[in-house]
Amino acid sequence: MIKLLEAMLRQKGRAEITVTGVSMEPALREGDRIEVRRGGDYAPGDILVYPYKGGELLVHRLLKKEGRCFCKGDNAFRLEDVEPEQIFGRVAAVNGVPAGRWPAWKIDWSYRVNRMFIKCRYDPEKTKQTEIWRLYRLLILGKGDETMKFRKNKKMDYIQADETSLAVFDPESGDTHFFDETGIDILNLLDEPRDLEELLKGLCEIYDAPPEEIRGDVQEFLAEAAEKKVVELL
Q1: In the chain, what percentage of residues exceed pLDDT 90?
Q2: Which residues, other chains included, contact 99 with Cβ-Cβ below 8 Å and sequence gap of 6+?
Q3: What is the biggest distance separating any 2 CA atoms in the chain, rounded to whole angstroms?
Q4: What is the pTM for the complete model shown?
Q5: Is residue 98's pLDDT more than 90?
């Protein structure tokens, strides 16, 4: 496969291969056809194709680029370091649909999962029990957890100057966090525990918008608010 891929990319600058395994779910699933394009300026968030130790062909996402490229499967824990010249190319399309690049906040959380994996002494099962993985699984991978609910942290001090500005003071750390009108609406709904779907339903009623139109922004907000401990995970 590696020799064939090299030859096709050298001749045409592009190639199609079939995905095997689940390390990139849900972005890539078993049996998906991906188009690989040679060259270009690879950036964090891109999905790259490269050989790894032992001759394994990997299709994983670039998280950091610091001389070497540090990649990881979205649905995996291990971080691989690869020399840029080893990379065959970037995934340009999945089943004929252009492949998008992950935003910075998702890249950051994927990297956090790897750091937690190391902290858990490379034990996947222990890593899966951590709050970081549970949040990542729900908010980034979109794998539902009906037992997971969010609630506004009642230990914080909430100071609302007007309808569009809220300051949240953390007495423990001394940090102050600021939120706009949308953040205020979300935190008001989280006076009581709600899961992601319940929260989306409440916001859809406020903004008269379908859930999928606002889901990404809400997921990003919850990830950031949970990191700042303004929102608790129950």
Answers
A1: 90
A2: 27, 34, 47, 91, 92, 93
A3: 64
A4: 0.93
A5: yes
